[in-house]
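Structure tokens please, single chain.
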Amino acid sequence: MNVPEGLKYTTSHEWARVEEGTVVIGVTDYAQHELTDIVFIELPDPGREVKAGEACCVVESTKVASDIYAPVSGKILAVNEELTENPNLVNESPYEKGWLFKIEAADLGELEKLKSHSEYAELVAV
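Here you go.
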């Protein structure tokens, strides 16, 4: 899988990238593979304030429901509405079409606490 440049990662398998001043969040290829077939996604409400590490979204697959955590603090600006009709976009394109939500970060410096691609690769290779 082709992984875009500049992503930061959480130990709970979310990715984050800065795009036009906002932080776009999704689940990693590793996470979608572990979840298997995603059948439903409960997206957060736009306007909601979240803290880094707070559960704010739920992804349900044929085998498990999993909380998704905000990698940074801030306000939810947008959600990927396409996922309500086609949740398997997360399986098909976790880094592009399968993004979950966007946050207006209260402090972009929080991204520095996240893992780089090489650090995350070590984590999932264990």
